[in-house]
Amino acid sequence: PFDNSAVDGYAVRHGDLDPDGDTRLVIAGRLTAGARADMTLGHEQAIRIFTGAAMPAGADTVFMQEDVTVEGNSVIVPKGLKPGSNRRLAGEDVPKGRVVLPAGTVLEAQHIALLAALGITETTVRRRLKVAIFSTGDEVVEPGAARGGAAIYDANRYLLSALLEHLGVVVTDLGILADEPNELARALAKAAAWHDLVITSGGVSTGEADHVRGAVEKIGSLVFWRVAIKPGRPVAMGVIRAALRKDYSANSGAAFCGLPGNPVAVFVTFVRVVKPLLLQLGGARPQTLMPLPVRSAFAYKKKKDRREYVRVALRRGADGEVEAVKHPQDGAGILTSLTETDGLLEFPENVTAIEPGDRVGFLSYAALMG
């Protein structure tokens, strides 16, 4: 809100300086940060000033203390400093009337700091989204529970819960649902009454035991089912009606996302399908991810008209160039392919082959999840 010094040093009037040599100025006062700025700089005078202190009237330039020589009550300053050096102008960060946080901004630490710096103690925000998550499948059991020979521990709910909490969402974990169509429909409708979004994993493919799609169509509708991506093709999105309740504060329905059963496909469809939906539901502006160009260290072939995501680790090549190394196992059930890599390469629909040395677009996990 006021002109102030960016350094510890001496505030001067630039017009008093000798352009061809050193200038001796009388030290006429001392200003510390927070002191009243009612001091006026006289002709051929300097004011001892500290970082953050308000500039005295008449001063326009500050010499750093290490660049000057002090002799008694005088300071000798060298030639060559430009007018306005080391002075921070009022409003240079936020000019009066400027919008600093447009509607739809997802508040991070830096935004909170800016509000505080402007003296703003309250701002209007959206409430946190409420999301219910289920896993489906007779073969899925809770980690730590007794596991039969044909059962697997449920990783997907824990993956989804961590991803959602990272985005500031209120998560309700509703456990594991059996492959029974009517029970699936009842559980989904009940969850829709109290949540903005319901997410399931598993049961959305085309197998005889995949009942999630049918359950959703019984109590709502699908907007789409199956997308030309790999991994994650059977992903579905729709709207489900809520179970009727006496409490009229309950929702009439909720958005629905049905994710595949394999955990890597769950991750990919979450960051590329569910996350944009969450931003939209929460009132946030769309996020544009900018893939970073890196060099491919491997050859790869893919189908045309399908977008593919390949898990890679980054390394330095012999020439110092950053290059992407494909994980040796690329199955959608290989969780270590996420823990042992740094991010995804996104191959668009029109690409059919990648050769070593080609430029490819890298998306870090931090960018995808943030």
Structure description:
- The structure is a single chain.
- This protein is of the alpha/beta class.
- 18% of the residues lie in helices and 31% in strands.
- Strands 5-2-4-3-7-6 form a 6-stranded mixed β-sheet, with no helix packed on it. It has a 6-stranded mixed β-sheet with strand order 12-9-13-17-16-14, with helices on both faces.
- A hairpin with a 5-residue loop joins β20 and β21.
- It is elongated.
- The two termini are 33 Å apart.
- The mean pLDDT is 93.
Task: Give the SSE layout.
Blueprint: E1 4-5, E2 9-12, E3 23-31, E4 45-49, E5 61-64, E6 69-71, E7 74-77, E8 87-88, H1 109-117, E9 130-136, E10 140-141, E11 152-153, H2 156-166, E12 170-177, H3 181-192, E13 197-201, H4 212-219, E14 220-225, E15 229-230, E16 236-241, E17 253-259, H5 263-281, E18 292-296, E19 300-301, E20 307-316, E21 322-326, H6 336-339, E22 343-347, E23 353-354, E24 359-364, H7 365-369
Parallel strand pairs: 3-4, 9-12, 9-13, 10-11, 13-17, 15-20, 18-21
Antiparallel strand pairs: 1-8, 2-4, 2-5, 3-7, 6-7, 14-16, 16-17, 18-24, 19-23, 20-21, 20-22, 22-24
Helix pairs in contact: 2-5, 3-4
